[in-house]
């Protein structure tokens, strides 16, 4: 066997080996592995058996987001805990038009127009200091409620295909379970096991124009909010959700406004005190 | 002969030069501005000395990170001094605690900087300021404190866990909380690749440690903090060099210096503890002079040995049994 033929054979073998091992790798996808076959439903009832119910989002949930969670504000404290001064849009990539509109903010007018919930719209909501309560409204709809502002968002895994309807503060949220693409080393191991973790991706549109901050930093009706909910459990028993939020708004932003917020799980509803939309005047 | 004349000429020239050198005033300081002096520590880390607490500065391609900001009055000099070592913007300020000699310049120094992350520019908002959560609460007035600062000087970010990590200027920057030491909001900042620690007022080798009991400080927390510094620091040779520690006040030190200081604090603590165990009153404890052999090094008119003894006494008598056993 000539040397060149031997080299060619080695290369082909390596190539085939790589392809063979790489193919079964999970390179990301939306379907989560079954956690509880009885709860998740399924189309197959076994060989020859009757078809089962269709799979549900609740049954396929790779992470449990239900419960009471409190926002832990460790970032941008003075822009989130307080009402910043008018025109203070620090760190928000507003374009010239956005800056102009931010300068028009009038808290008294919002009060008079009963528009105080503009700061509690979906694109700004989870940046506020508040508690959230998440429950399954039905097997394909996760309900997110807030105590501050008493807002309700419906994260729909099986949204209706009809028209979006009238714009609302919370808009229309389409949810799906999402797994980050991940390779397992070079593909030489880890096959056949189930992937732990996963997260929730929510895309929200059809919002009424609202505020990214309590001081009137605007987002428009054209804004699209994309959120990623990750859960992580600490060894000391603390349970956390981190929500990474991306607001894209061609009307007022020069680039996506990306933030992340952390929520710590609370054992019960003892600290849950719903209050209506309320904005304190900025500090003088 | 010619050679002798040449040698004499060189000597004469050297003498004249020496006289001239002595007569000429030293050049203007190139290592500082106003009352603020710049001192290289190692690698890309510098220390600034001046009014108020020491500042530790990291410079590099990403910008400038500043640990503490001295007093409000010194802030402009601090900014100017930093500009002598870097033309990059100040991105981060980390406060080791809330006292105004370490945070007074926050607003001015932050305003001179800019923060960039995840595509968002804090235009006009200046550099980010990080502190432990309780220091934030004191600075913004959420907790009753004389340290309350103007809004622009409040930390923008806080942490409440044992350690906050970031990667800046090519190295890990570990901000570690030291519970109930100088205050209840202390942090030390470890520049891991440069091997420099900014210790804040957990370590003040030019004086006895100040214990701000009203803000949660304790003698055992101080000792635990000093032990943490010793754990982190590694000497280079013969217990000298290696990890450099920039204290809250005083000169740049190494592990050996921290060890000497820790021993002093521990010995005084144990002496006072022993006297308390003998049911002595504060006045009796002071009269026993438990700091006598250290006063020449650490006492000053503004913070005497008696004052330190009183602080230790009050800290120990106020401590719970669990706190008394906190020190390692």
Commentary on this structure:
The complex is a heterodimer of chains A (284) and B (328). Chain A contains seven helices and eleven strands. Chain A has 284 residues and is of the alpha+beta class. Chain A has one domain (57-183, 195-266). In chain A, strand 10 (239-248) and strand 11 form a beta hairpin. The longest helix of chain A is centred in the N-terminal third of the chain and has 20 residues, at 3-22. The radius of gyration of chain A is 24 Å and the shape is globular. The relative contact order of chain A is 0.19. Mean pLDDT of chain A is 83; it is low at 17-46 and 189-196. Chain B is α/β, with parallel strands linked by helices and 328 residues long. Chain B has an eight-stranded mixed β-sheet. The radius of gyration of chain B is 23 Å and the shape is globular. The relative contact order of chain B is 0.10. The model of chain B is unreliable at 1-5 and 10-29 (pLDDT under 50). Classes of the chains: A alpha+beta (284), B alpha/beta (328).
Task: Pick out its properties.
heterodimer; A: 284 residues; alpha+beta; nine-stranded mixed barrel; two-stranded antiparallel ribbon; 26% strand; globular; B: 328 residues; alpha/beta; Metallo-beta-lactamase, Chain A; eight-stranded mixed β-sheet; five-stranded mixed β-sheet; 11 helices; 34% helix; 22% strand; disordered N terminus
CATH architecture type of chain B? 4-Layer Sandwich
Supply Rg of chain A.
24 Å
Count structural domains of chain B. 1
Straight-line N-to-C gap of chain B: 75 Å
The helix-and-strand class of chain B reads alpha/beta
How much strand content do the residues of chain A show? 25-35%
Helix segment count of chain B?
11
Low-confidence stretches of chain A: 17-46, 189-196
Mean pLDDT of chain B: 89
- Strand fraction of chain B equals 15-25%
Query: What summary fits the major beta sheet of chain B?
Result: 8 strands, mixed
CATH topology title of chain B: Metallo-beta-lactamase, Chain A
Q: Tally of extended strands of chain A? A: 11
Rounded to an integer in angstroms, the radius of gyration calculated over CA atoms of chain B is: 23 Å
Morphology of chain B: globular
Strand-and-helix sequence of chain A, N→C? HHHEHHHHEEEEEEEEEE
Q: Report helical residue fraction of chain B.
A: 25-40%
Strands across the major sheet of chain B, in which order?
1-2-3-4-5-6-9-10
């Amino acid at each position: 066997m000539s040397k060149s033929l031997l080299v060619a054979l080695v290369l082909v073998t390596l190539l085939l080996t790589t392809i063979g091992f790489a193919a079964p790798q999970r390179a990301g996808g939306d379907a989560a592995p079954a956690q509880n076959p009885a709860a998740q439903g399924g189309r197959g009832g076994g060989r020859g058996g009757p078809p089962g119910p269709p799979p549900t989002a609740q049954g396929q949930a790779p992470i449990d987001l239900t419960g009471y969670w409190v926002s832990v504000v460790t970032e941008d404290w003075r822009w989130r805990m307080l009402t910043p001064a008018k025109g203070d849009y620090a760190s928000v990539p507003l374009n010239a038009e956005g800056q102009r509109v931010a300068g028009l903010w009038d808290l008294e007018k919002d009060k008079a127009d009963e528009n105080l919930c503009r700061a509690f719209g979906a694109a700004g909501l989870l940046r506020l200091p508040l508690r959230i309560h998440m429950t399954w409204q039905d097997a394909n709809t996760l309900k997110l409620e807030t105590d501050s502002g008493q807002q309700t968002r419906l994260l729909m895994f099986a949204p209706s295909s009809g028209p979006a309807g009238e714009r609302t503060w919370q808009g229309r949220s389409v949810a799906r379970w999402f797994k980050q693409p991940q390779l397992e080393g070079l593909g030489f191991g880890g096959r056949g096991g189930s992937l732990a973790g996963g997260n929730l991706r929510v895309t929200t549109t059809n919002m009424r124009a609202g505020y990214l901050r309590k001081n009137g930093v605007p987002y428009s009706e054209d804004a699209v909010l994309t959120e990623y909910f990750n859960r992580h459990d600490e060894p000391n028993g603390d349970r956390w959700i981190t929500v990474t939020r991306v607001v894209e708004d061609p009307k007022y932003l020069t680039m996506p406004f990306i933030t992340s917020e952390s929520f710590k799980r609370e054992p019960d509803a003892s600290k849950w005190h719903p209050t209506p939309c309320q904005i304190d005047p900025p500090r003088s | 002969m010619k050679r002798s004349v040449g040698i004499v000429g060189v000597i004469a020239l050297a003498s004249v030069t020496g006289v001239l050198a002595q007569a000429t005033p030293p050049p203007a300081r190139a290592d500082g501005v106003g009352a603020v002096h710049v001192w290289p520590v190692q690698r890309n880390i510098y220390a600034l000395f001046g009014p108020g607490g020491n500042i530790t500065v990291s410079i590099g391609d990403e910008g400038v990170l500043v640990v503490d900001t001295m007093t409000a009055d010194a802030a402009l000099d601090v900014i100017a001094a930093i500009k002598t070592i870097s033309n990059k913007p100040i991105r981060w300020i980390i406060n080791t605690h809330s006292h105004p000699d370490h945070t007074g310049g926050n607003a001015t120094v932050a305003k001179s900087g800019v923060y960039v992350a995840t595509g968002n520019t804090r235009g006009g908002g200046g550099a980010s300021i990080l502190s432990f959560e309780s220091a934030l609460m004191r600075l913004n007035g959420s907790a009753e404190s004389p340290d309350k600062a103007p809004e622009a000087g409040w930390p923008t970010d806080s942490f409440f866990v044992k350690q906050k990590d970031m990667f800046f200027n090519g190295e890990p920057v570990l901000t570690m909380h030291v519970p109930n030491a100088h205050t209840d909001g202390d942090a030390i900042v470890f520049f891991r690749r440069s091997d420099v620690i900014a210790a804040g007022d957990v370590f003040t080798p030019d004086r006895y440690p100040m214990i701000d009991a009203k803000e949660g400080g304790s003698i055992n927390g101080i000792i635990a903090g000093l032990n943490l510094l010793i754990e982190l620091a590694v000497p280079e040779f013969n217990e000298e060099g290696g990890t450099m520690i920039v204290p809250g006040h005083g000169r740049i030190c190494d592990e050996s210096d921290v060890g000497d200081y820790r021993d002093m604090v521990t010995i005084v603590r144990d002496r006072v503890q022993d006297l308390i165990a003998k049911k002595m009153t504060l006045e009796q404890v002071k009269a026993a002079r438990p700091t006598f052999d250290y006063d020449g090094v650490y006492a000053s008119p503004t913070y005497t040995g008696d004052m330190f003894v009183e602080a230790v006494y009050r800290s120990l008598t106020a401590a719970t049994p669990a706190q008394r056993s906190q020190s390692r």
